[in-house]
Structure formats: structure tokens, C-alpha cells
UniProtKB/TrEMBL annotation:
Gene3D superfamilies xrefs: Metal-dependent hydrolases
InterPro entries recorded: PHP_dom (IPR004013), PHP_domain (IPR052018), Pol/His_phosphatase_N (IPR003141), Pol/histidinol_Pase-like (IPR016195)
Organism taxonomic ancestry: Bacteria, Bacillati, Bacillota, Clostridia, Lachnospirales
One GO molecular-function entry: 5'-3' RNA exonuclease activity
Stated name of the protein: PHP domain-containing protein
Positions of the Polymerase/histidinol phosphatase N-terminal domain: 3-73
Length: 264
């Protein structure tokens, strides 16, 4: 089963340019059987699938719910939760990395660093969190070892990181534009039909292969060194937004833990 494990939709990401249905059609035309929606701090793209497409179209195509979470100091992290878990706190950016790991695992999910060796501040290995404690990689369930929007050297280093810590390797296009869709893939067993199947497979030590081709029309490719200013600005925005949402996250976390305990 061939999946793209890092997908941004127009419905869910502010910088996404590809409507979900077009995304699905593009992937199907390239021989993909599924995708993981990973919008920035949002499940809006997946909600669009669930409310407007699921059961009506593309019933031969697997759409999994994920999110690309902006941590406070640890870069971008891909998160996959069981399909019956609604964890709205994941739509409130800015949690410390260790807290995110604890919460995701407490609710039965898995997570791993996106483009871990890519841009400073946005990628785990380019953050103080990692430099202070590289062994934090042990706490993750997988590593994104191939990202179509990152340089070859960054992907090779990410692959070595996954090998060093014996982590499953995911490949994702990180597509925001049509030309990037389908440039990365991950191969899984055909019996994976939902988030829980995938989570169980990874937790039980299942391996997967990944690869793809590089996309050379990203914003950083077009504007060169000026991209560092954008990244730096985003870093401070993330810090401020995370701090402002701290109390709201705390209240939401209490509510969701209580709901989870009652369900058990």
C-alpha cells in the first residue's frame, strides 16, 4: 500500500493551495492508495473529508487523520491518533515537546519529527531541545526520513537518524502546491485500513520503506537566504502564540482527560 504521509490541504492549512479532492485525484493518478492529512495545527482538512467526501466518493482510497503540530522549541511534529480519539488540544499550538509526547502516548497515539534535519527552529535536530538531549529521539515512534521539500543532504541525515535509533521511516511530500503532490511515498502492508491499524503496526515494530523525488519550487528555493527571515519571524510568532494559548491548553487538557477517563 502506497501512501503520502505528509499532506497539506487548502481546507486545513493557511498556506495550502490544493483542495483535498484535487489532492486525492492527483495521488490516485500516480498509483497511490492513500494519504495522511497533516495540516498545520488543524484538523479542518480531515473534517472536510469526513463531512463532505467520505462514503460518497473515493471509497477505494484511504484517508488517515493526522496533524503537523508546532511545538514550543522542538520544531514540527507529525501526530497520528486513534480514529475514536478527539484531542482538540492538538489544535492549540505551542506545547513543550516532552508534554506533547506524553499526551499523545497517554491517549494511544504515535508521533515523530517532520523534516528533522531541515530548517532551523522548524526541525527537531536544529533546535535547542535536541541539542540539549539528542536521546529525545528515543521517545518518538517514527522519523520522517524523506521529505520532498528538503535538500538531499537533510533527507540523508534524517535517514541515518532513523537508523541510529531504530525508528520506522516515513516519507511525505509535504505538499502545499499541486506540483509537489505525490513526490514522496511510504509503503505499508495492505491490511492497514484505519489509524488504529497503523498505530498498532508501528508500535509492534513494523517497518516500512519510503522514498521519492525532490521538489525544487518551494518558497525557500525561490527567495534564497531571505527565507531565513521568514523562518525567524515564524519562530517568534510560534513562541508568542504558544504562550498566549497556554491557559486555554491547560483547561482543554483537563477536560479531555476527564472525558477519556469516563470512556475507559
Amino acid at each position: 500500500m502506497k501512501l503520502d504521509m505528509h499532506c497539506h490541504t487548502k481546507e486545513g492549512s493557511l498556506d495550502g493551495k490544493v483542495p483535498l479532492e484535487q489532492y486525492i485525484e492527483l495521488l490516485k493518478s500516480q498509483g497511490f492508495q492513500g494519504m495522511l492529512i497533516t495540516d498545520h495545527d488543524s484538523y479542518k482538512g480531515y473534517r472536510h473529508w469526513k463531512n463532505h467526501i467520505k462514503g460518497k466518493k473515493h471509497q477505494d482510497f484511504l484517508v488517515l487523520k493526522g496533524i503537523e503540530y508546532d511545538t514550543f522549541g522542538g520544531g514540527h511534529i507529525l501526530v497520528i491518533m486513534p480514529e475514536n480519539v478527539k484531542l482538540r488540544i492538538l489544535e492549540l499550538r505551542g506545547m513543550p515537546t516532552h508534554l506533547l509526547i506524553s499526551i499523545v502516548h497517554a491517549f494511544g497515539g504515535i508521533l515523530g519529527p517532520a523534516h528533522p534535519c531541515g530548517e532551523k527552529y522548524l526541525s527537531l535536530c536544529r533546535t535547542r531541545v535536541y541539542k540539549k538531549d539528542p536521546a529525545i529521539v528515543n521517545l518518538f515512534d517514527f522519523v520522517e526520513a524523506f521529505n520532498s521539500c528538503e535538500p538531499r543532504e537533510a533527507n540523508e541525515t534524517a535517514h541515518r537518524l532513523a537508523q541510529k535509533y531504530d525508528k520506522a521511516e516515513f516519507g511525505g511530500s509535504d505538499s502545499h502546491k499541486p506540483g509537489c503532490v505525490g513526490r514522496a511515498y511510504t509503503i505499508f502492508p495492505d491490511w492497514i485500513t484505519c489509524e488504529s491499524d497503523l498505530i498498532r503496526y508501528i508500535k509492534e515494530g513494523g517497518k516500512c520503506s519510503c522514498g521519492g523525488s525532490l521538489y525544487r519550487h518551494t518558497t525557500k528555493d525561490k527567495i534564497g537566504k531571505a527565507n531565513h527571515l521568514l523562518v525567524f519571524g515564524f519562530y517568534f510568532y510560534n513562541k508568542i502564540a504558544g504562550a498566549l494559548r497556554a491557559r486555554k491548553r491547560y483547561i482543554k487538557l483537563q477536560t479531555e482527560y476527564i472525558r477519556h477517563e469516563k470512556r475507559l
